[in-house]
Amino acid sequence: MKILIIRFSSIGDIVLTTPVIRTVKTQLETEVHFASKIQFDPILKTNPYIDRLHFLDGSLSVLIRELRKEKFDYVIDLHNNLRTRIIKIALGVKSYSVNKLNIEKWLMVNFKINVLPPKHIVDRYLETAARLGVKNDALGLDYFIPPEDEVALDRLPETHRMGYVAYAIGAQHGTKKLPVVRMIELCEKINRPIVLLGGKEDAEAGEHVKNYFENKDRSTGQPNGKTVIYNACGIYPLNQSASILKKALYVFSHDTGLMHMAAAFKKEIFSIWGNTLPAFGMYPYRTRFTVLENNTISCRPCSKIGFDACPKGHFKCMKEIKFDFYLP
User: Fold this and answer.
1) What is the spatial distance between Cα 287 and Cα 44, in angstroms, rounded to a whole number?
2) Residue that finishes a domain, picked among 78, 100, 130
3) C-alpha 272: how far from chain center
4) In the chain, N or C terminus with fewer CB closer than 10 Å?
5) Could you give the CA distance from residue 12 to residue 293 in angstroms, rounded to a whole number?
């Protein structure tokens, strides 16, 4: 038997498909193929449960021609959009598609009517594969780091080698990220060596946070705070960032892919939510976590994904969030 699993994006969503990949491979006598976008090759190429990868690199028709040659028995569609529907029609085999709950999410965003099932998206992914006889093995998420991408502790500043907290400061949309002044406030409360993680686009915000703690108060001549910051945003590629997450004592993260990577390593996570909701089913999976969110405003959620800026202009979901947590 030969099965194709499809998920084109994004980093976090692909990590969330790993229980399906693993259970299909280990519970069925089958060859597992996975179709995604070419930029996610680093996440997928080391997964031992995938027999072959197929990538969308511009032309959907080229990908379809490649997939047709494989003569799949089944397709598990964990993306369920127009492109995946075209692929399923072109392949002409039995397929199972995830329910994206678009109506339920629309009702929640537009009318604050909550008819969302109290179920993580991973469990909905697994329900999609269950029609082939697959069962949840309760092992959580997978993330496989190539040996060459493991970051040794001696590559970090000396201040961080005895233990650190990782804080993933990035997010795909602005309304999923704390303002820099609140990042500083959070880091001040954490009060431990912190590694800031994110892409090159997050490096400037990371520098602002780092500089705050390195600068001295003019009246006292003392540093503004005791927290020691290492701004690693834009320095490490994805798998090396994963290695830093893996070695962290705790992980703080916005609603982003690095949060799900940390969940794959069973880290204790403090997840920070702005305009989106954990109720959409994307909270940390099968690991200990604390949700930090502002439930006192009526405009949240304002989107199932996010915006560049708060559509109402006040951004109270992040500006007024309470950092109520304890680090033992």
Assistant:
1) 22
2) 130
3) 12
4) C
5) 20
User: What is the number of other CB atoms lying within 10 angstroms of the CB of residue 51?
Assistant: 14
Residues near 307 by beta carbon (within 8 Å), at least 6 away in sequence? 173, 174, 175, 275
Looking at the 3D structure of the chain, how many domains does it have?
2
- Whether 136 is covered by a domain: the verdict is no
Q: Where a domain ends, among 61, 95, 130?
A: 130
Do both 170 and 281 map to the same domain? Answer: yes
What pTM did the predictor assign?
0.95
106 in any annotated domain: yes
DSSP 277-310: -GGGTTSPPSS-EEEE---S-TT--S-SS--SS-
φ/ψ bin of 124: left (φ > 0), alpha (ψ from -120 to 50), beta (otherwise): alpha
Enclosing domain of residue 93: 2-130
- Asked if 259 and 284 touch (Cβ cutoff 8 Å), the reply is yes
